[in-house]
Amino acid sequence: MELLESELEGISRIELAQSPLICGLPDDIALICLARVPRKYHTLLKCVSRRWRDLVSSEEWHAYRQKHKLDEPWIYALCRDKFERVCCYVLDPYSTRRSWKLIEGFPPRSLKRKGMSFEVLGKKVYLLGGCGWLEDATDEVYSYDASTNRWSEAAPLSTARCYFACEVLNGKIYAIGGLGSKSNDPHSWDTYNPHTNSWKSHLDPNIVPDIEDSIVLDEKIYIRCGTSGLTSHVYAVVYNPSHGTWQHADADMVLGWQGPAVVVDGTLYVLDQRLGTRLMMWQKESRKWVAVGRLSPLLTCPPCRLVAIGKSIFVIGKGLSTVVFDIGNVGNMGGVMVSSSIPKLTSDDDVISCKILAI
């Protein structure tokens, strides 16, 4: 009897695999149709059948939507609440009811860690490293698959790290500097290759532990460093993948990089939060920083982080208070930039990092 049930189950699986996605249509045509369904309805698509669920969660689906410019970017934010617990939220910026939603299932071992990095590659969000009061720097990495809404363990870092920079360049994740368990860890960086699912470690004396921010600009990684034993001022180093080494960045650029940064169409923007919130722009041709405008203190809740979708910059502060403005059409009223806002949470969670993930 058990054998018969097993055989019947096997037959049903074969029939399911052979059944078309949409009756009367070849699967490639069905994919063309289904891939045009907006991302906010993907959860509903997965409820139709097992084949639809597997398709919507597949790399094929992600690659097709990306290739045909159908993918939609959502914002993911890593936060810390008043109980010092880490949590993750997501925002659909295209929704008519724009509001932040909590992502369930956060890895319990990372709940109290500090100094973790947060990065996006493909359709996954990565949570890397970190440490605690009674825990040294760890090499643990967790990934959140945005298409299946699940957290899982990923390949560990080559080097245990906390308070380090993390960026994506040329399809690889770079984990840079920070603090580790060995004396040479602060002067190293790891690269993750998703095709081999492995990390590779490198060394360079120009990398220092005290890293405050990082960006990718002109196909290069810039990291802004604090003071070190060699210098009493803030400076930055830049990584050129064609050379494979780190060098000091130009001092005139670093001078104005005094806050969270974002790159829009190859231009670097920085939010200066020292006296209110003022957006600055780096002009590469003239080698000067130019003030774009101020943001209303009634809308922003510093300290803030920046992300960009197209020409829209999102300024995300405490409680995930969110201010949005179009950099391609910046308007001013009394010197204050015209913007829209998204209501904050009832809590005052601190925002650690924000990233964009498109599916």
> Regions with pLDDT < 50 over 5+ consecutive residues?
none
Share of helix, binned: 10-25%
Number of individual domains: 3
The CATH superfamily label of the largest domain reads: Kelch-type beta propeller
Which percent range describes the beta-strand content? 35-45%
Layout: helices, strands, pairs:
Blueprint: H1 2-18, H2 27-34, H3 42-45, H4 50-56, H5 59-67, E1 73-80, E2 86-91, E3 101-102, E4 117-121, E5 124-128, E6 141-145, E7 150-153, E8 165-169, E9 172-176, E10 188-193, E11 198-203, E12 211-217, E13 220-225, E14 235-240, E15 245-248, H6 251-255, E16 261-264, E17 267-272, E18 278-283, E19 288-294, E20 305-309, E21 312-316, E22 322-326, E23 332-333, E24 336-337, E25 340-342, E26 350-358
Antiparallel strand pairs: 1-2, 1-26, 2-3, 4-5, 5-6, 6-7, 8-9, 9-10, 10-11, 12-13, 13-14, 14-15, 16-17, 17-18, 18-19, 20-21, 21-22, 22-25, 23-24
Plain-language structure description:
This protein is mostly beta strands and about 350 residues long. The chain folds into three domains: about 70 residues, no CATH class; about 120 residues, no CATH class; about 140 residues, Neuraminidase. About 15% of the residues lie in helices and about 35% in strands. The chain has a four-stranded antiparallel sheet with strand order 3-2-1-26, with no helix packed on it. The chain is globular, with a radius of gyration of 22 Å. The model has no long low-confidence stretch (mean pLDDT about 90).
